[in-house]
Design brief:
about 450 residues; seven-stranded mixed beta sheet; five-stranded mixed beta sheet; binds glycyl-adenosine-5'-phosphate
Length: about 450
């Protein structure tokens, strides 16, 4: 994890937030490449979940919803973690994660293991961030920042059913920020207090719910494989009944083997009719499906839910490699070409050669209209290649002496380091083809 954190910082993917004020624990800001990476992951999810399907529509609901939403959903009452305080070192820990926490005393031990440790009894701590709406701060103005995007979908069920004229099975997908006042955040982006969720609620006839639950586990697992994560680093773990959330009739985690061990990447839950029934009860608006023949029922809901942050960590960890090439070390991110922040680099071999610069800039201007490409004329060519390897750019096009005489360029492949020559006029089509090809990580399964 340290290598990933250091690369992210060095290359401007992710910075600790509020750094000039000493930082704010577990909060991060994204730099240029981080933004490009996030955009790509978001877009690939949106394509697979919405654009490539006829049965899912998009939604973008508000972050601050009516406070009753969170009563109906069970979050006011039950979205809590048990926490203990240490009266000696004044630190706060999750009571159920003491073995994963570090005591404030050195040498580092777990809370409760030092003779001076003085832990309180566990108390329930609600993870929702509170705010107030309007100019008066009283209990009537209390509201919450959403801890999940899902509830915004349930409360719009009727709108979508009527206006998008859908019938089960159909889904509503949403991408947006969620906020949780986590007691023990950490491990880089893995557990943060502000994150971007990508959730889809799939409404199905109740008898079909188990079939769709299995279907979505398979689909989501397939999405990770399609975008290059190694199969050996992924597994599906079904929750036991005691582990499930209050709303769940079945939950499976798609887990990734992070440097901290196997942990939840994405959750797929069968939420049954819990949410629609509760919102019907609390809002008195009937949330049900009425068919053309008068049949009526409350659909059951299958939910795949993940954060961009957990995907970013998994993809960076999976892609990271260090190797020696021709006696030189290189660090390379073997990201899927459709995930990599920059698709291609355009490199004039000699930065001061007007002929090379002119051809390189023309190529760059042509490609940048449709793709994320980078022009780089700074430093020796070897250094430029290594810089691109570190940010995961799959291909580099070099404009050299020969280009001036026959209008061909070399393309260098990030993974194999193979180089081939092609006409400069064919680069755009070559890139289109290369992106269409199936890609598999050279790191194996
Ligand atoms: N709507 C259901 C729901 O929110 P969850 O298991 O609490 O379920 C879903 O969260 C996903 O959101 C997780 O699988 C994980 O990918 C992501 N997630 C949850 N808490 C997170 C945090 N503190 N930091 C980063 N990602 C988080």
């Amino acid at each position: 994890m340290d290598q990933i954190v250091s690369l992210s910082r060095r290359r401007g993917f992710v910075f600790p937030s509020s750094e000039i004020y000493g930082g704010l624990g577990s909060t991060y800001d994204y730099g240029h490449y981080g933004v490009l990476l996030k955009n790509n992951i978001r877009q690939r999810w949106f394509e697979a979940m919405v654009l490539e399907r006829d049965d899912i529509v998009a939604l973008d609901s508000a972050v601050i919803l009516h406070p009753r939403v969170w009563e109906a959903s069970g979050h006011v009452e039950g979205f809590t973690d048990p926490l203990v305080d240490c009266r000696t070192c004044k630190l706060r820990f999750r009571a159920d994660k003491l073995e994963d926490s570090q005591c404030g005393r050195k040498p580092s031990k777990h809370p409760g293991e030092f003779s001076e440790c003085d832990l309180t009894e566990p108390r329930q701590f609600n993870l929702m961030f509170q705010t107030t709406v309007g100019p008066v701060e009283d209990s009537g103005s209390r509201a919450f920042l959403r801890p999940e995007t899902a509830q915004g979908i349930f409360i719009n069920f009727k709108n979508v059913l009527q206006i998008a004229r859908r019938r089960p099975p159909f889904g509503i997908a949403q991408i947006g920020r969620s906020f949780r006042n986590e007691i023990t955040p950490g491990n880089f982006l893995f557990r943060v207090r502000e994150f971007e969720q990508m959730e889809m609620e799939f409404f199905v006839p109740p008898p079909d719910s188990d079939r769709w639950y299995r279907y979505w586990i398979d689909q989501r697992l397939g999405w990770y494989l399609r975008y290059g994560l190694r199969r050996s680093r992924l597994r599906v773990r079904e929750h036991g009944p005691e582990e499930r959330s209050h709303y769940s009739r079945g939950t499976s985690d798609i887990e990734y083997e992070y440097p901290i061990g196997w942990s939840e990447l994405e959750g797929v839950a069968n939420r049954g009719d819990f949410d629609l029934t509760r919102h019907t009860e609390y809002s008195t608006t009937k949330l049900e499906y009425v068919g053309p023949d008068g049949e009526r029922y409350v659909p059951h809901v299958i939910e795949p839910a993940v954060s961009l942050e957990r995907i970013i960590v998994a993809m960076l960890v999976d892609a990271y490699d260090e190797e020696v090439v021709g006696e030189r070390e290189r660090t390379v991110l073997r990201l899927h070409p459709e995930i990599a922040p920059v698709t291609a680099a355009i490199l004039p071999l000699i930065a001061k050669d007007e002929g090379m610069v002119s051809k390189a800039r023309t190529l760059y201007e042509e490609l940048r209209k449709r793709r994320s490409v980078e022009y780089d004329d700074n430093g020796a060519i070897g250094r430029r290649y290594r810089r691109q390897d570190e940010i995961g750019t799959p291909w580099a096009f070099t404009i050299d002496e020969q280009t001036l005489s026959d209008d061909t360029v070399t393309v260098r492949d990030r993974d194999s380091l193979a180089q081939e020559r092609l006409p400069i006029g064919g680069v755009r089509a070559w890139l289109d083809d290369a992106l269409e090809r199936d890609w598999k990580t050279p790191k194996g399964d």
